[in-house]
Amino acid sequence: MDRFVQLRRLFLSHCKKLKKIEVLPPNIEFVDATGCTSLESFPDISKRFEFNTSNLSELHSIDLSGCSKMLVNVGSHVAAILRPQKRFWDQSCGLLFPGNKIPNWFDHCKETSSSCSSDIFIELLNPSVINGILTCAVFTYTGHEVEIDQRFLISITVNYDGRRLGIIDKLVYLKASDGQHVWLAFYDLEPFTLAKGSLQIRFECNSNGILLKHCGVHLVRNDEKNARSYYSDYSDSENDDDEECYSHSEDDDDEEYYSMDDNLEDGDKD
User: Fold this and answer.
1) Which residue ranges have biased composition labelled Acidic residues (predicted)?
2) In a designed cystine with 79, which of 56, 107, 134, 148 is the match (CB 3.0 to 4.6 A)?
């Protein structure tokens, strides 16, 4: 498949017998593997989103919803990868995969008590060092349809001192048996000149069948190359009283990445 050098978007949705996605074309931008229930190996996703060793510099968006056998690890460098380029006019940017945790290097996290909407407020004291925000939503479909995918819209609205800056949204196709999922997406703040003020990030679902479980926001600094050590030392006690950050494992030698090893349901060690 790597010989298709002009291929930008790859659609593999509902290939039920697909077990492995081999080497991707060099200019690929988007991969849709929705509902590939047998998929368990995707080497390029580890190289790109976990180790940052991939040569696929254009790859900014992957949809793995319903791929229950996939193990996805995400490093804190993912913000730069998910940052959409100006030529990307659509709303497909982001990484969607089965899981139930906010990455432990996120600095603002909130448990939503299973609602259709939630807000995170952040006071920006030095906005000049922030070039964007990485958002994370953990959600689940609670309807009764177990065989046919249902379509839902999840949106994230970014407001600053009461003024709407923009919105990110994602169409999601899930059935009840798919369990919880994680959606990571980047919002660029560089086009705006911001003074000290308050950011409000609102997470919403357009259907009562989808419930938000956890929401998170990671402030992306201009010197994000140092963010791995900076954010790994973040203390939960610095959060607001109603916020809780989720650490994946206190025994891990490297806590800068998010792993699906603990997925997928709430009977685990939390």
Assistant:
1) 235-270
2) 134
Co-location of 121 and 188 in the same domain: yes
Residue 203 included in any domain: yes
Report the b/e string of 164-174 with b at 16+ CB within 10 A: ebeebebebbb
- pLDDT by residue (tens digit) across 132-189? 899 999 998 887 766 677 888 899 999 999 899 989 888 888 877 788 899 999 888 8
Alpha carbon distance 265, 246 (integer Å): 15
Q: Taking a C-beta distance cutoff of 8 angstroms, is the pair 47, 24 a contact?
A: no
Report the pLDDT value the prediction gives residue 229, as an integer from 0 to 100. Answer: 29
Query: In angstroms, rounded to a whole number, what is the distance separating the alpha carbons of residues 159 and 122?
Result: 10
User: Count of domains in the chain?
Assistant: 2
Six-digit token string for 224: 């994000």
Q: Are residues 31 and 127 in the same domain?
A: no
Rounded Cα distance between 162 and 183, Å, is 25
The pLDDT assigned to 164 comes to 92
